[in-house]
Specification:
This protein is an alpha+beta fold and about 150 residues long. It has 4 helices and 5 strands; from the N terminus they run H-E-H-H-E-E-H-E-E. A hairpin with a 2-residue loop joins strand 2 and strand 3.
Amino acid sequence: MAGNGERADDKHAREPFIEMRRLPFDIGTLKVARALIVQYATAAGMGEDRVQDVELVVSELTANSIEHGGGAGLLSYWRENGSLVIEVSDGGRISDLMLGSRSVAPSSIRGRGLMLVRMLADHVSIHRDLHGTIVRARFDSYADVTRE
C-alpha cells in the first residue's frame, strides 16, 4: 500500500497506452534487447522478481526467433492499462498455436521454452499472419508475486 491508502499497482492501472518501442534484433543484438527490456521494466516500477520474469521471457522469445524465425525479428514493448506488453514477431511460421500449453515428454530435450513463457507471463497469445509469427506476452502485475 502507498501512504495514501492506494495499492502500489493502482497508479499503473490508470495509465493509458504508453508509447510503443520497437527494436529489430538478430544474434548480434540479443544482449541489447535484454538490457533494454530490463531497463524499461525497472523504470515502469516492476519489482525485481517480475523484471527477471520479463527478461527471461524476452530472452526465450528472441532466441526462438533467431533459431526458428529466420535469424532475426522485431521486439516491441509498451505499457497499457496497467500491464507491460511484449511482442516478438519474425518471419517464421509456427504450426501449433497452442505450443507451450501442453506437457512435454520428460525424455524430450526441447519444447519447454514457450511453456516457461506461458508460466511466467499473465497472458500469452500466438498469432500467424502473412509475414510470419507474432507472440505477445502481457504482465499484469508490477509487483513481485509468489508463484506456487
